[in-house]
Design brief:
The complex is a heterodimer. Chain A is an alpha/beta fold. Chain A is 35% helix and 16% strand. Chain B is 28% helix and 20% strand. Chain B has nine helices and 13 strands. Classes of the chains: A alpha/beta, B alpha+beta.
């Protein structure tokens, strides 16, 4: 990488330079330059002419042609790929498949049901990010619970939930801690502040999840057939590139940490091809304007001062060891599960919904019998249609 | 005038002395004119020609925002609905639902702002109504306005009027109102030097119609934004539309805020913009007329109505030059659709907004 040009690598294969000569890059527009995008695309397309690299897991399609499968593991990437029409511009041998990158979507129904139960308890204020509101649980959803009188409030930051707890000393405020390593440090900060200021009525229902264990679980699954990972930009800004080295080394899959604009994604795909062609499987950072080599040690320290790893249930992937985050012992008075002891009862996936298979890249949204019919953004059946990072929502909004 | 402590009480809505006081001191003082001042049960108006008649309720939160307030919004909202039908807006009625305890000083400020907007729009408020509800039964103040305008002879604007080949013209930068409101929302406040575009469009439309009366369809992209507007026109007219993302005027602040919040700028509300559909040979003349009005200086052609045979995401034009030859045709399955050409040179679908509408934006 040329460190004087943030985010832009000229790469081994002599990839195109950015069109602007100035060193300062606009964080959005410069990565949306049409000319750059088309050049990067051309570079990808031309690589096919020379024959595809024989990557470890490259597999033949029905027609006998080979193709490469790259899995993106970040809902924001999924949205960007759909919204910018990237999928349809790629050469036919290069397939982008969506993985478990949407935190709302990977949350198990049992955990959602538990939060809905908590929301319905007397004296409780349930605070959540907006996406969770319309996700259906087994028996009811948060939006329905709110219509029936539960006090459910949408917040944009964990600190807003903390403020609600401060403003309502007589009531318990339960925050639904959903998210990956990006969100968890902010929840940790709120918990530390709650403990420091004696806000005993601030509780967290933590179903936070860790990305690297999920990638490892995906790789270990025999039915998975990926050739490389497009790794999440924001999560990586926290955990750092080293977190993917085991996956790259043990499973021989190139990992490239990508930004979110069309040029970022196309450049990252070229960087994946660099590795495949060279027969290498390492971790590379395209999104260097956001990701430092060491990640964000302060955020990681904060995270692990409040949470510790625990086994967690993922929709579509099942139980993965040490892939979730639970509150450390000294924070247990703020643990909603421990304090409220709700009985979730029986939980199940919505009938006919294949969100689990979509989250693991085994199926695409149009292959679901409910997609765009019974299941749509106004009447979602599964979480992938609700979330602004969900694969089904991305297909529905931009690719139908 | 009221003191800073004075508030509207339930008795102000009782229809008696206090109601008269409130109406006289606040509303008649700000909005009075010979017709309103008669205080009859209904305004009597002399009108000739084809009329446009519309209604719009306003529940915006917060009531005061950069570039306007609920008063200005309630006036321009109805005026613009008349204007985009080609009508010259003339008369407005306004209904106020006020929550018990609302500061009279704020009500005066809002009434004064309606007065200023009415002057700008050259309309008169000729009828009004005031109700006061218990605390909690409304959020401060809701305003409903209706309006009447006269459509000049020879003007026939309708959503169903858009025709294949038409140019799609947007009058200026997209999303200013939506982001200005969001930047003020509780729990979301962020600093952005951005004002709502809230403004009456009647005068600009008059100039547009002078330049060419043959505008086929016209709407203002308010709630639901450009995405809803284009889908509505496509459905009503039975056509497909393609816009060019790169051609849409948008402020850097709006683009940045959308990236940050994960919003699609195409669904953001606007309160001082319009979208016109005209035959391509009339587009240049119409653009000139818009550019000569302060509210249309940023007007641009952002797309066109597709001709039969051009539709479908699988046609060659929809793919980038780099892969056009290599990708198999996925076939066409498209009627009354809206497409956006992306910076990648590919085409994506623009759906009717669903599932994630932003509440109380107007």
């Amino acid at each position: 990488m040329d460190s004087s040009r943030p985010g832009i690598s000229t790469g081994d294969a002599g990839l195109p330079e950015m069109s602007r000569a100035t060193p300062r890059l606009d964080f959005v527009d410069d990565f949306r330059e049409s000319a750059d995008a088309i050049r990067l695309l051309k570079s990808l397309t031309e690589r096919a002419a020379a024959g595809l690299p024989a990557a470890g897991r490259t597999h033949a399609t029905d027609g006998g042609a080979t193709e490469l499968k790259v899995m993106e593991v970040c809902g924001t990437h999924t949205m960007a790929i759909s919204r910018h029409g990237i999928r349809q511009t790629l050469p036919p041998w290069l397939k982008l498949i969506s993985g478990p990158g949407c935190p709302v979507c990977v949350t198990a129904n049992r955990d959602i049901d538990a939060f809905i139960e908590m929301a319905q308890l007397p004296g409780v204020i349930a605070a959540t990010f907006g996406d969770m509101l319309k996700v259906p649980g087994t028996r009811t959803g948060l939006a329905e619970a709110r219509s029936s009188g539960a006090d459910v409030r949408v917040v944009y930051s964990t600190l807003d939930a903390l403020q609600i707890a401060r403003d309502n000393p007589g009531r318990r405020v339960v925050f639904f801690g959903v998210g990956f390593e990006t969100t968890a440090p902010t929840v940790a900060a709120a918990l530390i502040e709650a403990q420091r200021s004696g806000l005993e009525n601030f509780l967290v229902h933590s179903v936070h999840k860790l990305v690297p264990p999920a990638l490892a679980a995906l790789c270990a699954s025999p039915e998975m057939a990926m050739d490389a990972f497009l790794c999440p930009g924001h999560v990586s800004a926290i955990i750092g590139p080293d977190a993917y080295r085991p996956v790259a080394a043990e499973h021989g899959l190139p990992c490239v940490i990508a930004g979110f604009e069309p040029v970022d994604i196309l450049l990252s795909l070229n960087m994946i091809m660099d590795q495949l062609e060279a027969g290498k499987a390492g971790v590379a950072v395209q999104y260097s304007r956001g990701v430092r080599p060491q990640g964000n040690p302060a955020a990681m320290e904060l995270l692990y001062s409040v949470f510790e790893p625990c086994d967690a249930d993922w929709r579509g992937l099942g139980r993965i060891p040490a892939s979730g985050l639970m509150l450390r012992e000294e924070f247990l008075p703020h643990d909603a599960q421990k304090v409220l002891e709700v009985d979730t009862g029986y939980s199940r996936e919505p009938r006919g919904c294949i969100c689990g298979q979509i989250l693991t890249g085994r199926k695409r949204p149009p292959e679901c019998g409910l997609f765009a019919g019974e299941c749509n953004p106004d009447h979602p059946v599964g979480p992938c249609m609700v979330s602004s990072e969900g694969t089904c929502a991305a297909y529905f909004h931009y690719e139908m | 005038m009221s003191g800073p402590e004075d508030t509207v009480r339930l008795a102000h809505g009782g229809g008696g002395r206090l109601t008269r006081e409130l109406v006289g001191d606040v509303f008649a003082r700000a909005l009075g004119n010979p017709i309103l001042n008669r205080m009859d049960d209904a305004a009597t108006l002399e009108l000739q020609g084809r009329l446009a008649f519309t209604i719009d309720s306003h529940v915006v939160s917060p009531l005061f925002f950069p570039g306007g307030d609920i008063g200005r919004l309630s006036l321009t909202g109805t005026v613009n609905d008349l204007a985009v039908m080609g009508a010259a807006p003339l008369y407005i009625s306004a209904g106020f639902i006020i929550e018990d305890g609302f500061a009279i000083a704020k009500l005066e400020r809002i009434a004064q702002s309606m007065r200023a907007a009415a002057r700008e729009a050259r309309v008169q408020v000729v009828a009004g109504d005031t109700k006061v509800v218990e605390q909690g039964a409304a959020d401060g103040l809701f305003i409903t306005t209706s309006g009447i305008g006269v459509i000049p002879a020879g003007v026939h604007i309708s959503a169903a009027g858009a025709r294949p080949g038409d140019a799609v013209i947007l009058s200026g930068s997209l999303g200013d109102h939506g982001i200005a409101i969001l930047s003020q929302r509780e729990g979301m406040k962020f600093d952005v030097e951005l004002k709502s575009d809230c403004a009456p469009l009647g005068e600009m439309v008059r100039q547009m119609l002078e330049a060419t009366p043959r505008i086929h369809a016209m709407r203002d992209p308010t709630r639901g934004g450009l995405a809803a507007l284009l889908n509505e026109i496509a459905l009503a007219a039975g056509v497909s539309i393609e816009i060019d993302e790169a051609a849409i005027p948008m402020r850097a602040e709006v683009r940045g805020a959308c990236e940050l919040l994960g919003l699609d700028p195409l669904i953001l509300a606007n309160e001082g913009k319009l979208v016109a559909f005209v035959a391509s040979q009339d587009a240049e003349r119409l653009l000139e007329a818009m550019h000569s009005h302060p509210l249309g200086t940023g007007a641009a052609v952002i797309g066109r109505v597709l001709r039969p045979g051009e539709t479908g995401p699988g046609d060659d034009a929809s793919r980038s030059p780099a892969t056009a030859a290599a990708t198999p045709d996925t076939g066409s399955r498209s009627r009354n659709r809206v497409y956006a050409r992306t910076v990648m040179g590919s085409r994506r679908v623009v759906q009717m907004p669903a599932g994630e509408q932003l509440p109380r934006i107007c």
